[in-house]
């Protein structure tokens, strides 16, 4: 009996051990004919499953995290088209992997579809930088993620499924506040970077998370075995390989990724003679997109973009790092519960109770783990930030602890803080966020109130 047979189970017999259930016939070339003989016009309904929680004999390429050369490092293969090739836990595209499953289950997506990467390569080159081969500097993304389609062509031709985890492109973005900034003379239309119609030219990079588990554990100062066990438990047992496959060190977690917006010449980012502005912004859909006035997120984000434009127009560059960590990575449901709790508490929404209300609902004030965030700055080769547009002490500490020098911190200008967001900003300043203003005493903090709904 072969090893593969040993780990084969049969759905119809209900013989399901704990494990990730991946249809055996996804890797089969005669999937289509099997489906047709089953008379199934829509979804593939496989009989057999293979548990990925056990090691396969096979052709998985080892990953040498931190290797200088991508061919020594090896490709990240999270595709499920061929189980024997997989060298990671999880699948590509973060949380969107679940939608891919729905597309396959509903018959909309052929599970054997292979991505055609023609003309998808980056229009500009970022890196490689020395930080890319420092296993302590980058642990939560694949620094070679944008090169995958170009450098692993040998594997591609041998049938391995190579998918980039980073994509880089260019765009024109247009924010109405920038026109206001031009009208007030804070930035100028130069016709190249910022056009007269308000269009701002940017280069942007989308980054999916790729976690090197030993490095994540080290960064968080915990044991890798503890990290793996708790990740397994707290996802409801979603990834058994976390506990059964110590030979797999890389995890593609089902979470949102990040987007980097580069304003100005990307080469200026690593030029020590040129200034660099950076804002690291965590997603706040309510404010960023819909303009909710309970927080400072969009005004501060746009101010960050404005500082980036000013810095780029001085010959430097600006970088906005936008992370999908909605509601301090607690999620929008928790965030809205907290809004209600804040508005309805005795005495109304008050700055002195701002963090307490979050902690009551979520158990913690914040789950963003800024310790992982500097990886994106290291990916860009950043060693010095002249203007850090952030008041967050957690972000500042993470960046400086990662060995990146911060020359100047830029707080949100007071006139940009919406009236109802005074609660948030004063509470944050009192808790240690950077500010040039005086921090309010406890009694004064209790007097800072937001409105009812
Ligand atoms: Zn917000």
UniProtKB/TrEMBL annotation:
Domain of life assignment: Bacteria
Listed InterPro entries: GTP_CH_N, GTP_cyclohydro_II, RibA, RibA-like_sf
Domain GTP cyclohydrolase II span(s) in chain numbering: 267-410
UniProt keyword terms in alphabetical order: GTP-binding, Hydrolase, Nucleotide-binding
Gene Ontology MF, one: GTP binding
Species in which this protein is naturally found: Drouetiella hepatica Uher 2000/2452
Enzyme Commission designation: 3.5.4.25
Biological process per Gene Ontology, one example term: riboflavin biosynthetic process
Database matches in NCBIfam families: PRK07198.1 (NF005536)
A Pfam family that the UniProt record links to this protein: GTP_CH_N
Entry protein name: GTP cyclohydrolase II
Start and end residues of each GTP cyclohydrolase N-terminal domain: 47-234
